[in-house]
Amino acid sequence: MKTRSPFVLSLVVATSFAVSACSSDSRQSLKTDVQTAASDVANAAGDAANNAVEVLARNIATQQGEEQFKNAGQTLDGPLTCEATVNDGVSKLDISCTGTTQGGGKAELTGSTSEVPGASVVTLDGNFTGTVDGKEVFTTERLGG
Q: What integer pLDDT is reported at residue 61 of this predicted model?
């Protein structure tokens, strides 16, 4: 880290001198380019955070959803396949899972949570419904626990 600090400082000083020598239009163009780059970095960081939240929620829903189906007397034949989608700036996560029961029924788990996974890596609080062949077999406000 220390080896980068002199480089960064040199870059800032060089950029400052270059900007001061530029025309007003050039300075504005450089300012716009820097703002665009900063915005791109922030968006990439936001996308990475959303992806991480989606992965955690998907993993919890997969494991705990399978348990919910088992508890409802609808043991699955293999794992659930789940998707989690961040909505409203991480204030809501939509969960959608599909699978097949041992009896050959089409299992679906749907729901949403306003909880950001991380507080607990084994539960999700929200509203979730499990169906088999379109018939509701459970509803719960918590997956796991």
A: 92
What is the pTM assigned to this prediction? 0.65
How many alpha carbons lie under 13 Å from residue 31 in its C-beta half-sphere?
A: 9
Strands 106-113 and 135-143 turn out to be unpaired
Strand positions, DSSP E, the chain: 81-87, 92-100, 106-113, 124-132, 135-143
DSSP letter assigned to residue 1: -
CA distance 109 to 84: 11
Contact 82, 94 (CB under 8 A): no
The CA distances from residue 44 to 40, 72, 91, 106, in Å, are: 6, 41, 19, 37
**Residue of 99, 121, 123 whose CA lies nearest to 110:** 99
- CA gap 98, 110 in Å, rounded: 9
